[in-house]
Every structure is written in C-alpha cells, then in structure tokens.
Amino acid sequence: MAKIKATHIRGACPMQTKVFRGLIRAKSSKQDNKDEKENCHWCQLRSFPTHKTAPITVVNEIDSQTLPQNFRFINGVVLGTGVTAADLSFRSGCTCGQDEDCQYSGCLCLADLDQDEASDDADDDHSGLDSATRASLSPARKKAYAYHTHGHKAGLLRSKLHTSKLPLYECHQGCACSPDCPNRVVERGRTVPLQIFRTPDRGWGVRTQESIKKGQFVDRYLGEVITSAEADRRRDASVVYHRKDVYLFALDKFTDPQSLDARLKGPPLEVDGEFMSGPTRFINHSCDPNMRIFARVGDHADKHIHDLALFAIKDIQRAEELTFDYVDGASGDSEELEGKIEDMTKCLCGSSKCRRFLW
Ligand SMILES: C[S@@+](CC[C@H](N)C(=O)[O-])C[C@H]1O[C@@H](n2cnc3c(N)ncnc32)[C@H](O)[C@@H]1O
Ligand SMILES: [Zn+2]
Ligand SMILES: [Zn+2]
Ligand SMILES: [Zn+2]
Ligand SMILES: [Zn+2]
C-alpha cells in the first residue's frame, strides 16, 4: 500500500489559487468570473444548491494528483447534440388530490406498473401510527410505488426492489401533488454529504460522510446524454475501446424495437460522465457493491432520457467507500474475451465474489 502523504486538500482544485486571486481582484470582470467557474472544481461544487446541507469535498492523502482538468461538475444532465426532451404538449402528470394518493395504483404516474408489482403494506413499519391512520390503510388499495411510507423505513426503497430491474416511476413537476409527495425521492435529490478521495490503488473513489441506510437514495449518475452514434464515435476515439465503457451508461430500460415511439425503438441514448458529471462519476466498481443503479422515470414522455439513480442495497457506515457493479452482475461473453486478457483491467475490488476483471 502506498505511503500516506500529509497533503490534505479539502475541496481544493488545481484552479483554486487562481480563484482566490480572482476574488481579490474583486469582480474585475464578469467574464473572468465565468471563466473561473468553468475551470474551477471547487467553484462548481460550491454553486450546488445542496452545498450547505450536503457538501461534496475532495481530499488527497495519497499523492499530488488533482481531479482531471478536462472534467467539470454539473448538477443535472446535459442534453447533447440531437437529443431533446419531450415537447410541452406531450407532457403530463398525475391529478392526485392528496400527496398520499401517489402511493397507490390509481396515481397516473404509476399507471405503467404491472399490477402484479403492486404490494400491500406488509413490509411497512406501522408502529407509531395512530389508530385512525392505521384504519385508513385499506388492504384493498394496492400500494404501487417503490418506497416505504411509514416508520423508520419511510422514504427507503422497498426490499423486494433491491434485487429487481424494474424501473421506478416517480411524481414530478407536472403533477398536481406537492413537492413533499412521498413519491418524489429522486427528484428531491441527494441529501448525503460525499467525499471524493484518492484511493491507494484505483485512482479516485467516493466515500460517504454520513451513514446511509439500506434502500436510501444516494445520488444520480449524471453526464452528457448523447446519441448512440456519438457514443460509438467516442468509444472508437478512446485508446482502449472498453476503457470508455466505464463512463458510458445506456438509457435502454424502455428500448423496444417494436415500440411505436421512435425515440424508444433504439438504439438507446447513452450518458457519458467522463468529462462532465457529479461526484458519482468517481465511484469505483465492486463485484459485491453497496449500491445499485435503477432507471427512474419522471414525466412518462421523457422515458428515453430516464434518470440513473443510485440506491444503497446495504447499510453503509460513515466513511465507507461507495461502490456499484458497473455491469450489474452481467459477465462478459467468454468467447469475446478470449485472447484479450492483456487488454483487460484487473478488478481490485477485493471482495470474495470478485470476477477478476473490470471488463
Ligand atoms: C468511472 S471511473 C471511477 C473513478 C476512477 N477511479 C478515477 O480515478 O477517475 C472508472 C475507472 O476507475 C478504476 N476502477 C474503478 N473500479 C475499479 C476496480 N474495482 N478495480 C480496479 N480499477 C477500478 C479503473 O481505472 C476504471 O477505468
Ligand atoms: Zn399521484
Ligand atoms: Zn405525487
Ligand atoms: Zn404524479
Ligand atoms: Zn471485483
């Protein structure tokens, strides 16, 4: 293991000195400020609306490496050339009169769920509910949404979804319910402070600054949403073809060659987090991870640009490294891999379930 150096950079970035100089020059020009924000990681992180409540910090106690200069932090996906969100006229939301209605099958946001996926409240914790509320939980109303409503698990993903590949349907800006609706977990965003840190052997990694519960939403995987053709072009331009794959995630949850919606016929759009993303772009792979990626849909008209939402699938202690399985359990085609071992990256996840190679 590499010797730990005393360098400790809290939220620093290569441009930090320049930024401070910029501040001293005191608003010399708006353009200067804009340029600094373009280039300064710390300025980008500080401008996040959650900076006070759930800051992202950066530390390196291993070597003198800084975050890649060609990378910038963003707070939402960026639609690349040729990628558009649905037209206003195609947008729709639910008409639920009360927020609590958005948990049940009648909510239009949950209309695309297979009814077999609806479940009763059996795994909710009802202790602490008054008798009137308990009585109102009619067993006839099938709970369809993805989260627990009551007790200490409120807001956490239901256990049966932890291993499923089903998409999560959430309420959104176009719905009649309030921003506090229980079905807006991903929309409300990250609440956990995270730290990007230098690992001894896998470059940068991410650890949590607070404990995280099993089923808790952590953050979205952000990036530039690009066409499949552009993704292929970027793969081809990469020195090692598969190296690019660790940053590209296909938005293929709803891809169906038979679809009447041209945007869902495929090939799917992809999210490239290499050059612009949130802290999740620095999360390393593990063959026995503590998080999983779920497809999350808000407005149904935007299924082609669905979110990639990371949820904890284990209880995670404060300061523990966050990981997810880059291929979600899928193993490579052994014929395709034959003879390419020298091109492959050895997996250093250290778990007893390790599949030995990253790709
Ligand atoms: C999406 S990036 C993660 C952040 C990366 N560590 C960095 O410093 O930018 C993926 C890259 O991280 C490294 N990596 C991630 N998980 C790894 C693992 N389990 N074993 C070895 N290298 C890993 C590989 O270099 C991989 O190409
Ligand atoms: Zn609703
Ligand atoms: Zn709602
Ligand atoms: Zn809704
Ligand atoms: Zn592994």
Automatic annotation (TrEMBL):
Where's the SET domain? 192-327
Indicate the segments forming the Pre-SET domain, all copies.
92-189
Tagged with keyword S-adenosyl-L-methionine: yes
Which keywords does this chain's UniProt record carry? Chromosome, Metal-binding, Methyltransferase, S-adenosyl-L-methionine, Transferase, Zinc
A Pfam family found in this protein is SET
Ranges of residues in domain Post-SET: 343-359
Q: Does the keyword Zinc apply?
A: yes
Coiled-coil regions, chain positions: none
What are the GO BP annotations of this UniProt entry? methylation
GO cellular component terms listed in the entry, alphabetical order: chromosome; nucleus
Q: Which Gene3D superfamilies match?
A: SET domain
Q: A single GO molecular function, which one?
A: histone methyltransferase activity
* Subcellular location per the Swiss-Prot or TrEMBL entry: Chromosome
What PANTHER family does the entry give? HISTONE-LYSINE N-METHYLTRANSFERASE SET-23, HISTONE-LYSINE N-METHYLTRANSFERASE SUV39H
Which named protein is this?
Answer: Histone-lysine N-methyltransferase, H3 lysine-9 specific dim-5
Q: Which organism is it from?
A: Metarhizium brunneum
Q: Which gene encodes it?
A: dim-5
